[in-house]
Amino acid sequence: MSGSRAIREFSANGEVLKAADMWARRKGYRVVEESVGRRLYRKGVGIFAGVRMVEIRTDDRRVHLEAWVATNLGARIGSLFLLPPEITIESGGPKAMLPRKMGRTEVNELLGELLQEPIE
Fold first, then answer.
1. Could you tell me how far CA 25 lies from the centroid of its own chain?
2. 13, 84, 106, 113 — which has fewest CB within 10 A?
3. What gap in Å lies between CA 1 and CA 21, rounded to an integer?
4. Which domains does the chain have, with CATH numbers?
5. Using CB atoms within 10 A of its CB, is residue 86 exposed (0-12), middle (13-18) or buried (19+)?
6. Backbone phi, then psi, for 97, in 5-degree steps?
7. Helix boundaries (H) for 9-118
8. Distance (Å, rounded) from C-alpha 98 to C-alpha 26?
C-alpha cells in the first residue's frame, strides 16, 4: 500500500469525463466539484463504509485519476486516531479494508472501461 491516494496517469482517446459521468451515475457517485477538464466524485456519507472519492483530471489525451477513502471524525475517534483522514483504495494493510475494497472494485470498473490496468 502506497500513499493516501491511489494515483494513475495514462493516455486515453475519447470523452473520458463523459464515460466517468456515466460510470458515476451507475455506481451511485455524485459530482461534488466540477471545472473544465476536472471532476471530483463522492459516494457515501462515511458512517459505515467510509466516503469513497474519485478525482479525474484530463488535459487533451492525458488523464490523471486519484481514488481514496475519506474517513470522518467519528470513525477516526472510534479508532483512537489510527485511521488517517485519507487512505488509498489499494490493497494492503488492515485499516478500512471493506471501504477500500469497495472503492477499488468500483474504480476498477471505470479503469476497465477506459482500457487501463486495474488497481491491485
1. 14
2. 13
3. 27
4. 6-113 (3.30.310)
5. middle
6. -60, -45
7. 16-27, 73-78, 97-113
8. 20
Cβ neighbors of 17 (< 8 A, separation 6 or more) are 37, 39, 56, 58
Dihedral sign from CA coordinates of 67, 107, 47, 30 = positive
Residue 60, C-alpha cell as written in the block: 487533451
- Rounded Cα gap, residues 92 and 36, in angstroms: 34
Residue tagged 494515483 (cell numbers): 7
The answer to whether 37 and 65 have CB atoms below 8 angstroms apart is: no
Determine which helix (DSSP H) or strand (DSSP E) holds 95, and give its type and residue range: none
2-61 per-position pLDDT tens digit: 579 999 999 998 899 999 999 999 999 999 999 999 999 999 876 665 799 999 999 978
Q: What is the pTM of this model?
A: 0.88
Query: What residue type is assigned to position 24 of the chain?
Result: A
Check residue 93 and give left, alpha or beta (phi > 0: left; psi -120 to 50: alpha): left
φ, ψ dihedrals at 16, nearest 5°: -65, -45
